Amino acid sequence: MDIAIIGSGITGLACARRLAQAGLAPRVFDKGRGIGGRVATRLAAGGVQFDHGAQGISCESDGFRTVLDQAEAAGHVAAWEPGTASTTHVGTPGMTGLAKYLGHGLDLHQGTEITALTRTADGWDLKAGEPLGTFDHVVCTAPAPQTTRLAGPALTRPLDAVTYEPSLTLMVALHRDLEAPATRSNPTDALAWIAHDSVKPGRPTQNCWVAQASADWSIAHLELSRDEIATLMLDLFLGLHGLDPTDVAYATAHRWRYALVDTSLGQPFVTSRDKTLHAGGDWCLGPRIEHAWQSGTAIADDILRTA
Ligand SMILES: Cc1cc2nc3c(=O)[nH]c(=O)nc-3n(C[C@H](O)[C@H](O)[C@H](O)COP(=O)(O)OP(=O)(O)OC[C@H]3O[C@@H](n4cnc5c(N)ncnc54)[C@H](O)[C@@H]3O)c2cc1C
Q1: pTM score > 0.85 for this model?
Q2: Ligand 1 atom 5: the closest Cα is on which residue?
């Protein structure tokens, strides 16, 4: 069975891994350069490194705990409990460690944006500008609005009930040490979450910080340019810590338009009527990495049941 998976975030990787373990050979396509989607690690000039997407991993289910234990034993995940969130683990040496563990040995095609998905008599034709081929089965794990654009009419349930909060994120490297807690969470502040990235286990860098704006602040400033966002957030960060611009070695910002699921669909995946198309993601079950893993795994199990 030829299977294409759109998206190499945790949902797509969890699905592909389960299918590969059952002897299938799914091809995974993602428009991004690296795997992991919103589980992201930015490497920049001067050897600095930031987890600018998901900050940590939390776990409530036995199934996901088993995966975390295996990833930890393989050196891609480490225990970390900052106390300000439900986080118990982080990827190492960056958050993408978890994605690298799940993606090991898979047939991954990065830099490949799927632009069209068309049902034909022979299966599903995929295009990334150019035709990529015809597949018996397609799994779409893009965020809900992007899944709707690609595959909406073929799905048995509309996804408009799904809502997200955006997140504007600042990455700062300092020339000097800063006396501040490893994490600081204050949802009503403009800078709602601040983490000293370098103190997470296994980080190769010093003095790298990540700050995430609150949902309200992010919504109000969402359409500014990345430079404008970086300037405003850096001012807030420096003011909060009594720092001077000369203390800053590096600063940049990232805009996550679909960051955290606010309203999920309440079921692990959606299919087409003939069940040759599955769609899923964190947007099915909730705002966390574990929800993405659960959706991807449930899709794979459903495909294997009918294969
Ligand atoms: C700032 C921020 C902080 C967060 N903090 C935490 C946290 O501390 N703990 C936690 O558990 N979760 C956190 N999350 C949420 C967590 O990152 C997500 O729930 C999870 O990573 C979602 O995985 P996914 O695979 O469903 O989606 P994604 O990671 O979004 O993956 C979807 C993939 O599809 C690709 N794609 C989309 N369209 C196409 C196309 N047309 N063609 C090809 N590829 C396409 C994208 O490039 C992407 O790689 C955070 C998220 C953000 C943004």
Answers
A1: yes
A2: 54
